[in-house]
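Async update (no meeting this week)

Hi team, since we skipped the sync, here's where things stand on the single-chain job. The sequence we agreed to prioritize is pasted below, unchanged from the tracker. I ran it this morning and attached the output directly underneath so nobody has to dig for it. Comments welcome in thread, and please keep replies under the output.
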Amino acid sequence: QVQLVESGGGLAQPGGSLRLSCTASGFTFSNYAMSWARQAPGKGLEWVSGIYNNGKNTYSADSVKGRFTISRDNAKNTMYLQMNSLKPEDTALYYCTKDQDGWLTGGYDYWGQGTQVTVSS
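Output:
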């Protein structure tokens, strides 16, 4: 069965960095686009960043552009989110999601359990 397992969350200071990982199994990872989404306390779900199956096309929300970098290693069935210059407003539960096709359709059919990121001094 499809499994998406996030890791790498934790506590970081403002201006600090964290690297999230999402390890996938149960499907042909290299065939599908993937995304990161997040949900801050008391707020709705926010799409953060997405990457095509080939790893060459990436897109990010304006709120993280220039600070977060999405990437993937299809040989390792793993997607990453490098988060730099973290801000307190980046505090959220971060989810890994699988798209239904090789490009970003916005149709996510599987989600991980999430990894908590807290940015605080």
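Quick observations from my side:
The chain has a mean pLDDT of 97.
DSSP finds no helices and eleven strands in the chain.
Reply here if anything looks off.
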